[in-house]
Specification:
Number of strands: 0
Distance between the termini: 50 Å
Number of domains: 1
Structural class: mainly alpha
Number of helices: 2
Length: 60
């Protein structure tokens, strides 16, 4: 049972390391291109606008 717990912890660690490396490479991909960075900023701004409209129109 101890081996199963250890293997689960090790696999979880490896998955999170993979997530970290993937997010770092995605960050570099976005940061290194001003056009992609501006597109990302506009996408996030649009999402916030849509969420604020949804919140404003929500019934209590």
């Amino acid at each position: 049972m101890l081996q199963l717990g250890f293997s689960y912890m090790l696999l979880t660690l490896l998955v999170f390391i993979g997530y970290g490396l993937l997010s770092h490479s995605f960050r570099l991909f976005i940061i290194n291109s001003p056009q992609r960075l501006k597109g990302m900023q506009r996408s996030l701004a649009g999402a916030f606008v849509l969420l604020s409209v949804k919140l404003a129109l929500a019934e209590r």
